[in-house]
Amino acid sequence: MVEDDPMIAEGVVVGLRAAGMSVDWVRDGLHGEAALRDGGYAVALLDLGLPGADGLDVLKFARSEGVETPVLVITARDGVDDRVGGLDLGADDYLVKPFEMRELQARIRALVRRRAGRATSALIAGASELNTETHLFSRGDVSEVLPAREFALMLALMERPGRILSRAQIEERIYGWGEEVESNAVDVLIHSIRRKFGRDVVLNVRGAGWMVAKS
Amino acid sequence: MTRSLQRTALAWMTGLLTVVGLVTVLIAYIYVRDQTNEFLDGQLRQIALNAGDGPAITSAAPANDQDPEDQFAIAKWDGRGQLVHRSDAGIDIPRQIRPGFAEVEASGKRWRVFTQKDGDREVQVAQQDEVRAEIIESAALGVAAPIVIVIPLSWIVVGWAMSRLLRRLDELAAEVAAHTTLAREPIPMDGVPSEMAPLVLSLNGLIERLRAAMDAQKRFLADAAHELRTPLAAMQIQVDNLTAEQVRPSASVASLAAGVKRASDLMNHLLRLARLDEPLPAGRERIDVGALLLEAVADIAPIADRANIDVGADISTAVIGVAVEPDVRTLFGVLIDNAVRYTPSGGSVDVRLSCEADRAAVEIVDTGPGLPKGQEERIFDRFFRGAPFGSEGTGLGLAIARRVAERNGFELTVENRADGRTGVRARVVMQAAQEQVG
Hints:
The structure holds 2 protein chains of 2 kinds.
Chain A: H1 6-18, H2 29-38, E1 44-47, H3 55-64, E2 71-75, H4 80-88, E3 93-96, H5 101-115, E4 122-125, E5 128-131, E6 136-139, E7 142-145, H6 148-159, H7 167-174, H8 185-197, E8 203-205, E9 209-211
Parallel strand pairs in A: 1-2, 2-3
Antiparallel strand pairs in A: 4-5, 5-6, 6-7, 8-9
Chain B: H1 5-50, E1 73-78, E2 83-86, E3 100-106, E4 109-118, E5 121-128, H2 129-178, H3 197-245, H4 251-276, E6 285-288, H5 289-306, E7 310-314, E8 318-323, H6 325-341, E9 348-356, E10 359-366, H7 397-408, E11 411-416, E12 424-435
Parallel strand pairs in B: 7-9
Antiparallel strand pairs in B: 1-2, 1-5, 3-4, 4-5, 6-8, 8-12, 9-10, 10-12, 11-12
């Protein structure tokens, strides 16, 4: 973690260690560049407003040196331009202060997973996780391999968490060409999923469709 | 108390012309009177000296255009005092004892009389004073006439010239009025009357200073909100750590977390409000209103689900509007968030998009308690909260919504439901084009 503010840094260190991660903390851009170059980190947390060198400069330097460590930018700047600028320079994700610890932990885990090459096989939305290879769906303590149509439904929803899919859009995904669509098929599938994993695994917006929550 | 320049100028002009007119008339009167009296007295004397024994004037053919009062009244006496001639029998001017000029009253008129006495002959020539008065008055009035004409003429000419000048002034006023607090350009100086230039210049100076002050205020607000991010972030992290450490979450940590969340929300809203005062981005884009609305609904769906509020969306028409996209996201977000926030558990929120001709309407209806009676006007005020009970809103949501509506040219109404049920109906109307689906 490259962060100049001790109030934030100490809190993050405590929070991440409690979640089972080990954290090294440096306070300025130069040390940040050195740490990134030395490597050995799963994820780098980078504050943008740093003394010595600006966070974006650190990022630019690291990428130019061929450092491939995933970088999660943490900043108090939330201007759209800053956001785009950071992602253009090779940041992997972006979190605006103030943020919740859970959110930070989730983003770090997602980055680590993505780097480990599991990103293609695991879809995550909040407490739900769907493995696209094994069709294993987990939510909280419950894990179960989904039957084909339920998997197709959850795949459609979890590809874009936070987005509402209409009945027609879901039907398109769970039925192949020429297959006859049963009128209440979607309702039956949703009912089955909810019975297994809890009512709030899939949210309904009356008249519009269904979605899974982002976080 | 304001005074009309035009009326003041006209009043002074009229006053001046009246005084000039009166003085001219007076001078003309005195001058003409002296001259006329001198001339006519001379005539009286000449006639008296040369009067012969003529016929009575009544027996002569009257001149066409001669007024009867213009006639001289001449009487002659011989040495014995016997009347030998009288020009008009009807006029009897008493015989004067002393020679020379005299003022006499006779036959109900005033006369100027000249008496010539020399031994055996006495001639008395008289002329009505009225004749003199007429000559003098008409001469004086003749002098006054042009001025009497000039007064109304000056009203027309000065009025016209002034109104031309004042119209430019009206245009200036319109330009100043059109200057919102967002305008950054000075008032153009072209065509400004040179006498007005200092006023416009100082107005421009004022605009410049105002702009600087506004900028400073906005910068301060943005900086302050920005600076708050770091301590708020630290607090949020500590609260999260505290929560994670506890086996069973305690009520005081929960309310601490709620406090931090509220401070963060407030800071975000302040920043957003500050940004909305910046000038509109140059390129406004075509936006898919339905898609943005559906995204706003999706954003609130998890919160509504936790609060056990049924959210419905009727977005069957595809509508394309022209607006600033982040603004529209903010507007929909604020309105839907408000609806869910004020709706009790078990209630419902309905979002509807409709389009008629070139107007699209977004309606968000909830089953909350509605707007407090008598305070409907105040809901858009900053930091005003509609709900008396522990609402966790920032009090800035509708202020932000109104600002967005203003700068994008939307119509925004937030009012109690008119269908007999309690709740609020928020409605946004915007210029839009309907697009056929499929």
